[in-house]
TrEMBL record:
Organism: Luteimonas endophytica
Subcellular location: Cytoplasm
Domain of life where this protein originates: Bacteria
Annotated GIY-YIG domain residues: 25-103
The name this protein goes by in its record: UvrABC system protein C
Residue intervals passing through the bilayer: none
Length: 616
């Protein structure tokens, strides 16, 4: 890429036509900036001069574009070598800058994968989250159920282990998975290393979508077994080939093994749903619905184009992408995706036969998913309005935060903060606070610390504040919240306590208002139902964090209490046995095999973990 060109507005405003005159016809990316420096829009262009000139011509434009242009105070451009580079840079900038007027893919859910670990005896398992475990990750899959279905098939066909390392290292006899024919029991040596490695290789071929190559290998192995008079092995391989062929036969598309995604976009006003129907190696992996932020756009082709560009910048594309409508950038996207994938990727909008039936299926599912979401949003809006009326607020709250405290007899205290907006939970803004330096069980001090940590930063740095702050607790907890807000000089936040009802019955909670009033709207009140949803989510988030912190603390403290166990030996033990559970399942002799642990120390560790005297 070459140099950047910045356009600064004259004192009376931004002169778009003068800026266009300074541009070349080279491909590149342009950025529109507001007066405060915020990025309004990022776009790509085959010719920067022609594309930017369109914005400042006299031709009529959509209301959304006119509203954006009215805010432009400056523009910046970056020249690229070709259109593909411009497309890739545009994706990077949209992801990092989150411009106000771009159509953006919003997807805060992590994708599920099939994980094949990199070990002497690899494990085949479900995985979601950061890919920090060494091994191969196959996917992503549209849904967790698809991953589990795939694993079910893989374990039946190839019999790789699924157990955690802590279990695998400490078994003395085969488990139930071996008994039902879903594992070859490498834990107790019932399968040889070469045979297990062959199964690992075959699993990788299958999950890579190379099942034709796999069946060729299996047929060759079957012939060798038959020639060597190993008829039982030959029969097993024959059945395995038949099973794989059977899986393929169920999911052929137009007579070919499918490796494609089908995408359809449904819109109602500026609300959009893009539905993904995925096939890999002939297997239907199911559907997943996405709801991009349209920023006021009502053009489904624009939304679909932005989705394809942004989604496949993060996920590996299949060999074929079938769309329910034509998009302007299809040829460019095809070129860019082929370049990044290292093989040809087709982007098609006009199809026949079975592919056309899948496009129709995707369209109908997209429309149904969008209608369901709009109904859900309408219900959420109605509950927000009911809550506004219940609390006698001037307008419905746009940001609700709720705090809760969780601990077990004062141990491992954790405070949670969950955030709800007009569309429901905003999980990316949830926060947990590990409470320290307060007396065990002092919930008032814990709440005071958590609220101080949350709102001090907002007070000092001008951060976002909630319209409604819910406190899970009675008058004492609410008093702590009122004190914190007063100490930090924060106003404009409506504070409400959520006290448990009689006999702790759901729906009978009391709402403690700032003026001292107490409301008991009853279980049928939509406003209280929304409060319950937010409070329950805060409780779930707090107790999950507390349990994790408590388990970690107990794991560390049990080992730290043993004389002779420092951080290095503790780490070696937990790594060797895969955690405290694996260590507890080990014998003293097995513990003594860990580097740095002698027999005497192993005996003390075993005794301590099992509540025995070291002399026993």
């Amino acid at each position: 890429m070459s140099a950047s060109t910045d356009g600064m507005p004259p004192p009376e405003g931004f002169d778009g036509k003068a800026f266009v005159a300074s541009l070349s016809n080279a491909p590149g990316v342009y950025r529109m900036l507001a007066a405060d420096g915020a990025v309004l829009y990022v776009g790509k262009a085959a010719s920067l001069r022609k594309r930017v000139a369109n914005y400042f011509s006299a031709s009529p434009k959509p209301t959304r574009i006119m509203a954006m242009l009215a805010q432009v105070a400056a523009m910046e451009v970056t020249v690229t070598r070709n259109e593909v580079e411009a497309l890739l840079l545009e994706n990077q900038l949209i992801k990092s800058l989150k411009p106000r007027y771009n159509v953006m893919l919003r997807d805060d859910k992590s994708y599920p994968y099939v994980l094949l670990t990199q070990e002497d005896w690899p494990r085949l398992a479900f995985h979601r989250g950061a890919r920090g475990i060494p091994g191969r990750y196959f996917g992503p899959y549209p849904s967790a159920s698809t991953v589990r279905e795939t694993l079910n098939v893989m374990h039946k066909l190839f019999r790789l282990r699924s157990c955690e390392d802590s279990v695998f290292r400490n078994r003395s006899r085969p488990c139930l998975q071996y008994q039902i024919g879903r594992c070859s029991a490498p834990c107790v040596g019932l399968v040889s290393g070469p045979d297990y490695a062959a199964s690992v290789h075959r699993v990788a071929l299958f999950l890579d979508g190379r099942s034709d190559e796999l069946t060729d290998e299996l047929n060759a192995a079957m012939e060798r077994a038959s020639a060597g008079l190993e008829f039982e092995e030959a029969a097993r391989l024959r059945d395995l080939v038949a099973s794989i062929r059977g899986l393929q036969a169920r999911q052929y598309v137009d007579g070919r093994v499918a490796d494609l995604d089908v995408l359809a976009c449904a819109m109602q006003g500026s609300s959009a749903c893009v539905l993904l129907l995925a096939f890999r190696d002939g297997r239907n992996l199911g559907t997943r619905a996405f709801f991009p932020r349209t920023s006021g756009s009502e053009d489904p082709a624009e939304v679909l184009s932005a989705f394809v560009s942004q989604y496949y910048a993060e996920q590996p594309p299949p060999r074929e992408i079938v769309l329910d409508r034509a998009i302007d950038d299809a040829a460019l996207l095809e070129q860019a995706l082929s370049q990044t994938a290292g093989r040809r990727v087709q982007v098609r909008a006009s199809v026949r036969g079975e592919r056309a039936s899948y496009v129709d299926l995707a369209r109908r599912n997209a429309a149904a998913a969008l209608a369901s979401r709009i109904d859900s949003q309408s219900a959420q809006a109605a509950r927000l309005e009911a809550l506004r009326a219940l609390l006698e607020l001037g307008e419905a709250p746009q940001r609700i935060e709720c705090f809760d405290i969780s601990h077990t007899m004062g141990e491992a205290t954790v405070a949670s903060c969950v955030v709800f907006g007009p569309e429901g939970p905003v999980r990316s803004q949830y926060r947990r606070y590990n409470i320290a330096g307060v007396a065990p069980g002092d919930d008032y001090a814990a709440m005071h610390q958590a609220l101080t940590r949350r709102f001090r930063r907002a007070a000092e740095q001008g951060g976002v504040l909630p319209d409604l702050l819910l406190i899970d607790g009675g008058a004492g907890q609410v008093a702590q919240a009122r004190a914190v807000l007063g100490e930090l000089g924060i106003g404009g936040v409506t504070l409400v306590g959520v006290a448990k009802g009689e006999a702790r019955r759901a729906g009978h909670e009391a709402l403690l208002l700032p003026d001292g009033r107490e409301l008991r709207p009853g279980p049928d009140a939509p406003g209280l139902q929304l409060v319950q949803q937010v409070r329950d989510e805060a409780h779930r988030f707090a107790i999950t964090g507390h349990r994790g912190r408590r388990q970690k603390a107990r794991t560390v403290s049990r080992l730290e209490d043993i004389a002779g166990i420092g951080p290095r030996r503790r780490g070696s033990l937990l790594r060797h046995f895969g955690g405290l559970g694996g260590l507890k399942a080990a014998s003293a002799e097995q513990i003594a095999q860990v580097e740095g642990i002698n027999a005497a120390l192993a005996g003390r560790i075993y005794a301590s973990l099992h509540g025995l005297d070291a002399a026993d």
